[in-house]
Amino acid sequence: MTGERILVVEDNPLNLKLVRDVLDAAGYDVVSATSGEEGLRVAAERTPDLVLMDLQLPGIDGTETLHRLRRDGMAPDVPVVAVTAFAMAEDHARAERAGFDAYVEKPISVRSLVHQVRQLLDGRVS
């Protein structure tokens, strides 16, 4: 069991359940939010080791939420991963320019999600 805390910011209940279930089964401490504003609050209360952030959220979007997380003092070594159904090369580049550390495409691959999360956590700057 890893015990590392993953914050999942996702407004689609089915996607949120899938990601929670997969990461819970892998031993992660999963906390969640269904909007950018809630994500900011949860991150402040329960500091995550990694954030999976949907880009299209009600209220403030994923990119603005990322900017506020960084501005409000979340450690720069905490990876923030864009999660979106947009899969074009320009979408990847846009997420990178916005400051996301990585990009995960929807639909989420159950087989690769845990591996991707582990790689991102292992790559953190200590």
UniProtKB/TrEMBL annotation:
Signal peptide: none
Stretches assigned to coiled coil: none
InterPro entries: Bact_response_regulator, CheY-like_superfamily, Sig_transdc_resp-reg_receiver
Gene this chain is encoded by: divK
Protein name (Swiss-Prot/TrEMBL): Cell-cycle response regulator DivK
Keyword Transmembrane helix: no
UniProt cross-references to Pfam families, sorted A to Z: Response_reg
Residue numbers carrying 4-aspartylphosphate: D54
UniProt keyword terms in alphabetical order: Phosphoprotein
UniProt-listed PANTHER family: RESPONSE REGULATORY DOMAIN-CONTAINING PROTEIN (PTHR44591:SF3), STRESS RESPONSE REGULATOR PROTEIN 1 (PTHR44591)
Superkingdom of the source species: Bacteria
Response regulatory domain segment(s): 5-121
